[in-house]
Amino acid sequence: MMFRCGRGLKLLTLVVLIVLLYAATQQYLFESFLRRRYITFDDFPKAYSNALKASTADNTPLEYDYNTFPPSTNASTLIPPTIHFIWFRDLYAHQLDRPDHPSHIPHEGSSAPQLCIEHNPSFTVNVWNATAARKLLEDHYSWFLPTYDNYRYPIQRVDAFKYFVMYHYGGVYMDMDVACRRSLIPLLQTPGWFPKAEPFGVNNDLFAARQGHGIMQMMIERLESRDWNLIFPYVTIFWSTGPQFASDMVRRWYSKGWAKRYNAGDSKQDSDADAFYTLPPEFYSEKYTFFGHSPGGTWHGEDVAVVLWLVDRPWVLLLLAAASTTPFMIVAMRMRRLRQETFKV
Ligand SMILES: *[C@@H]1O[C@H](CO)[C@@H](O)[C@H](O)[C@H]1NC(C)=O
């Protein structure tokens, strides 16, 4: 009996190991694909790369004449000089106003849009509010309204609207707590990009695309089928509209055969209007980052949804605490029993 049980367990372990190995291999291939699509210094004009490196080394403002960026032969395949922010004022107001939810989550805007205007005087900078956002959907994507209006967490509406506004107009999307540090013109020279998330996938707090980009189209079309309720707010937001959704869409794009096309020589000179790239950490969050962090605007984060959800369900914290200590208790009990058995012998 014990023997057969052991064999079943071994088989199960083997199957689990094979599945994990397969998933890890797929993830590894996807990650290396994302790295091969990195925007690098070689994608900028040499003079610009040198000026950027020099200004970073000396910590001085970057001096560069952006008019020298090669004029595009086909501007419609490139990212337009537009920045979109989304600010749904008092997103959680109806919950925060309840007397049993004393909270001080800020509801002022952030200085991020102003900083972006200062560094990009030739750009159009839009800050979308809830009314204007719903109006755009009503006018052009009314098929999505039932999903949009019924999202459980308001932040899902912000996430979903990002993809619609980027499909509709194109440009650079930035969360309210992401700020500009210098001109974004060097980052407009491709049909689109997502920043690389560490360790896996891509982020959705900042991304760029030409108007009508194929990935954006796929994303808006698949939001409805991803509207899952995974019980916990963070997990639900992450998978239905957030970074996991964005990463899965990029991966889907990759598995549809795009990767094969680009792997042939890893050429970035392709003029394909639906090509996309990845923004490496060095330009996204590290040494040569184009972006900074602007305080304020974080009110709309997933953390608010999580906090509010937990305030209504304090017992979940108890359960989580119990669940996290259980393995230690079991090990401790086993060890005690083991010691007792040793003594018996
Ligand atoms: C929302 O944005 C629109 C368009 O920018 C503007 O006309 C309107 O006044 C804004 N509404 C609120 C409540 O701020």
UniProtKB/TrEMBL annotation:
Sorted UniProt keywords: Membrane, Transferase, Transmembrane, Transmembrane helix
Keyword Transferase listed: yes
GO molecular function terms attached to this record: mannosyltransferase activity
Membrane-crossing segments per the record: 315-333
Keyword Transmembrane helix among UniProt keywords: yes
Subcellular location: Membrane
Record-linked SUPFAM superfamilies: Nucleotide-diphospho-sugar transferases (SSF53448)
GO biological process, one term: mannosyl-inositol phosphorylceramide biosynthetic process
GO cellular component: membrane
Pfam families xrefs: Gly_transf_sug
InterPro entries, A to Z: Glycosyltransferase_domain, GlycoTrfase_DXD_sugar-bd_CS, Nucleotide-diphossugar_trans
Recorded family membership: Belongs to the glycosyltransferase 32 family.
Name of the featured protein: Glycosyltransferase family 32 protein
Taxonomy of the source species: Eukaryota, Fungi, Dikarya, Ascomycota, Pezizomycotina
